[in-house]
């Protein structure tokens, strides 16, 4: 009788072996990862399969149940994920069975970071940096933390970097909506404030185009996504004017008038 032991997430680090045709699959579930990349990288792999030379009757019988939880009683080295152990954090770090709850930790940390980041960047934009420079700082930090996430060695560092990424990105939304609505009249403030969410939605719709080519390696998804905030800041920063209201409050009335003249001319 085989000893029941949780699998560390992948059993294919030995030499390449012929795989069994018997597989077990179940509709994958994705955690609400937030921040784009998390939705795909935190997803549960679709299916697993027995390794043919393991000659494990327990593995063969478990595969017929069609449930990922069936791997909980299997010995390491008798099965593997069909998509490879780098397809998601669940597969790479074995977030199944008694470690299943850990798969939801990064998403929770991301939204906690977003909550705290909104308060921090809101105060920073009002007190010292202004809206324009806060957006730039937030974009640079978002890009840096997304790239560092792709280098995570374990689930705990990954969760910490997801928190940092959620914290960093908060400054973009709260400052951009202020910059966009301040320069239009009262009549257009409502519609203009909604237009930003259209782009937000379009960004989520573009994720499958990025995620599909990187489906074999979740780290590549974060590396690609890390380029987007940086590109946005470089391309848009020269065309963004500082908030005239903030400049006026800070006693920089001449700069505020210059911004208002540019808005009038535009």
Could you explain how this protein is built, in words?
The chain has 266 residues and is mostly helical. It folds into two domains: 19-100, no CATH class; 105-265, Growth Hormone, Chain: A. The chain has ten helices and three strands, in the order E-H-E-H-E-H-H-H-H-H-H-H-H. The protein has a three-stranded antiparallel sheet, with helices on one face. The longest helix is centred in the middle third of the chain and has 45 residues, at 105-149. It is elongated, with a radius of gyration of 24 Å. The chain starts with 18 loop residues before the first strand and ends with a helix.
Task: Describe the protein's topology.
Elements: E1 19-25, H1 37-41, E2 47-51, H2 57-63, E3 79-81, H3 89-92, H4 105-149, H5 155-182, H6 186-211, H7 218-225, H8 227-236, H9 244-249, H10 253-265
Antiparallel strand pairs: 1-2, 2-3
Helix pairs in contact: 4-5, 4-7, 4-8, 5-6
Condensed summary:
The protein has 266 residues and is mostly helical.
Structural class assignment: mainly alpha
**Number of domains as seen in the coordinates:** 2
Elements, N to C (H/E): EHEHEHHHHHHHH
Helix content: 55-70%
- Termini separation comes to 79 Å
What does the oligomeric state look like here?
Answer: single chain
Characteristic key phrases:
Growth Hormone, Chain: A; mainly alpha; 266 residues; 3 strands; disordered N terminus; 3-stranded antiparallel β-sheet; 10 helices
């Amino acid at each position: 009788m085989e000893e029941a032991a949780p699998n560390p997430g992948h059993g294919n680090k030995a030499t390449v072996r012929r795989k069994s045709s018997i597989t077990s699959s179940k509709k994958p579930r994705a955690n609400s990862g937030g921040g784009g990349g998390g939705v795909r990288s935190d997803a549960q792999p679709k299916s697993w399969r027995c390794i043919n030379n393991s000659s494990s009757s327990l593995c063969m019988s478990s595969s017929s149940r069609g449930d990922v939880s069936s791997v909980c009683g299997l010995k390491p080295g008798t099965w593997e994920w069909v998509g490879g152990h780098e397809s998601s954090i669940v597969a790479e770090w074995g977030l199944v069975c008694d470690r299943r709850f850990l798969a939801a930790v990064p998403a929770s940390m991301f939204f906690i970071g977003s909550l705290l980041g909104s308060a921090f960047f809101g105060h920073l934009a009002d007190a010292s940096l202004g809206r324009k420079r806060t957006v730039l700082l937030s974009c640079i930090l978002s890009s840096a933390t997304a790239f560092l996430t792709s280098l995570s060695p374990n689930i705990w560092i990954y969760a910490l970097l997801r928190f940092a990424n959620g914290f960093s990105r908060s400054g973009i939304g709260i400052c951009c909506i202020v910059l966009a609505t301040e320069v239009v009249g009262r009549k257009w403030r409502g519609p203009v404030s909604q237009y930003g969410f259209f782009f937000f939605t379009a960004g989520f719709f573009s994720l499958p185009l990025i995620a599909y080519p990187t489906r074999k390696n979740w780290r590549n998804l974060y590396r690609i996504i890390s380029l987007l905030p940086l590109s946005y800041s470089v391309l848009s920063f020269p065309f963004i004017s500082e908030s005239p209201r903030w400049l006026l409050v800070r006693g920089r009335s001449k700069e505020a008038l210059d911004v208002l003249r540019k808005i009038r001319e535009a």
